[in-house]
Amino acid sequence: MGFNFSNTPIGRLRRAGIVEGTSFLLLLFVAMPLKYFAGIPEAVKYTGWLHGVLFILFIYALIRVKLSENWPLTRMFLAFLASIVPFGTFIFDVQLRKEEMLSQEKSSKN
Fold it and tell me: Is 64 exposed, middle or buried (0-12, 13-18, 19+ CB in 10 A)?
């Protein structure tokens, strides 16, 4: 299964979520063990910095979707929650992918 992202606000949010979620997992399951079990604190320093930048990009993409798709605040809150729970953005992506496909089908019929 590959990831196919459209160049829409939802597609960009999906892309940002996958990249941000991956960086979060790397931080938790690679960099933190390297810091605490191997004595390499730089792993967290650099991975954490990268994850922080990607998290900000995810929030920016989320705001763009809010403005373009008029998402309710509860939906934005759920997306935010997904970004702070391990594997959350991947689970949220399943729903976004379905929404994106429905949107594409709608626009192709018009």
Answer: middle
Per-residue pLDDT tens for 15-58? 999 999 999 999 999 999 999 999 999 999 999 999 999 999 99
DSSP structure string for 3-20? ----SSHHHHHHHHHHHH
Q: In 11-49, which positions are buried (b, 16+ CB within 10 angstroms) versus exposed (e)?
A: bbbbbbbbbbbebbbbbeeebeebbeeeeeeebbeebbe
Q: Where do runs of H (alpha helix) occur along 1-87?
A: 9-26, 32-38, 42-69, 73-84
Closest CA to 89 of 27, 30, 28, 13: 13
Percent of the chain past pLDDT 90, that is, above it, reads 80
Spatial neighbors of 16 by CB under 8 A, at least 6 apart, are: 54, 57, 58, 60, 61
What's the CA gap between 89 and 101, in Å, rounded? 18
